[in-house]
Amino acid sequence: MCGIAGYIGLRQASPLLLEALRRLEYRGYDSVGMAIQHDNCVEIRKGPGKVAAVDSECHFAEMPGTLGISHTRWSTHGGPSQRNAHPFFDASKRFAVVHNGIIENYLELKELLRRDGVVFSSDTDSEVIVHLTSQNFKGDLLEAVRSVVKHLQGAYAFCVINNVDREIIVARNGSPLVIGIGQGENFIGSDVSAFVEHTKKVMYLDDFSLARITKDNVQVSDFAGNPLPLQVKTIDWDLEQAQKQGYKHFMLKEIFEQPQVAQDSLKQAVSITVRPARIIIVACGTASYAGYVGKYLIEKLADVPVINEIASEFRYQEPPLSKDDLVVAISQSGETADTLAAVRLAKKHGVKTLGLINVVDSTIAREVDQVIYTRAGPEIGVASTKAFMSQLVTLYKVAYSLADRTFDPQQLVSLITKVLEMQPQVKEIAQKYYHHPHFLYIGRNRNFPLALEGALKLKEISYIHAEAYAAGELKHGPIALVSDEMPTVALCPQDQVYAKTISNIEEIKARQGRIISIATEGDERIKSVSDDVLYVPKVDDILYPFMLVVPLQLLAYHIADLKGCDIDKPRNLAKSVTVE
Ligand code: M6R
Fold first, then answer.
1. For labeling, which of 10, 337, 546, 578 is most exposed (least CB within 10 Å)?
2. CATH assignment of 243-408?
3. Of 297, 257, 567, which is closest to residue 385 (Cα–Cα)?
């Protein structure tokens, strides 16, 4: 939810940490701060706002020192403000901390600390960590932090420094943290983009572990003090992959990367050897909509019953799980707290788990029994696009594998390239409709989850209210919303439910609703019931989701762009939702 970074070495830390903050900003952008050790002091500069704005006030790169930590925040406890920005000092200003996650028992801890005379300077849960560190410090910072974690409940990754020791102490339980191993310098980040141009050697810290990081050394131990082996890996993606390459926004770049993504995901080996009695798909947001498409596919092709569960609901139910079930977790980040909790619940019931995950070695990827990487590459835009495409491809491969067949769609990649060429028409339609405050999205069967995804894209980046319905549901209530003020995006390719969807469109037309149809090339009939039509290539019925998603993404993008929205960093959101 927040981004944290650290550096220790011989170079000036602040410019490196500032760059790391720019890369991690997608994780949260309410406030920003940095703490640097120099001349037996720790200096903190911080403020509310995005990295560029806070930097123009704080001039981070002017802070001298070769050891430091930094933070970009997505608020949970206490609004975005100077006082709630990380890092936090203890009363003596000798210790500083940055934290990502939630300390669930912070109120209780605050009360105990207050009784000891501690005065708090923020409304956050995080500040308790620094005061506890100060209280528990008896000469060894690592041992102080080891005592602190015994008091903490919740999810966290945090870094602590003090004013004299040439070391950074980090602790992890439930929130991501990765250490970059350099030569005579070491790095810390919430993900590898924080330091990927400096080193490709990384170590993912496991839950319930601590590390003492100096410029030449990293020592890892568990909470009880037992040393743990260093598991250093070499990653294979570079900085260029994480930059915009001339596109106005990461989201647009990522939409246009989809042909390549589909190709990479298609190459991934997928083999489901044991046929489960039932599949339960757990996921959140866009990943869950990919999961809904998966249900239609798996049931049709493999005849295995599928239940789709929103992970945040599933984790607090008492689902009747059986050992013959398979729980499939879908996640781009591999760090989504609710999806992770759903996986853990399944494992607790002895149910096998399969992860369809994008980020290699992420927490969910490491915890599931079997992982299939979706191969979308780094996705930076908060609105998920290419990750959805990769999830679809992978789910199709899973469905085909369960049916003992191979998914090898000739020309899928060139067809996706072709739909991207419709960008100018989508832009014209965006121009015509972007001032409308409400949109309706409809679709049937496999197209219904696409309607959900199209509406989610529009609302999250343009802040326009959008509702998605299975087209057949309209007459059970939502049709009351229809007027010429609320355009409907109708997903109506020439597939097995075409005629039924046309009838639903007619019902909207009869009530003065304006229709933007996404239909099959050559379909003349659709013109008579639509105000505007976007044509996608004719494909096998089963492949239409791949065709429909692209114009939906482009429509949301161009509407948001015309409205001047901050597309890659929409308000109130964060890329990776590592809290409940
Ligand atoms: O990293 P995950 O795939 O687990 O994330 C799930 C959702 O948080 C994510 O898809 C979210 O809905 C996106 N903002 C959608 O664009």
1. 10
2. 3.40.50.10490
3. 257
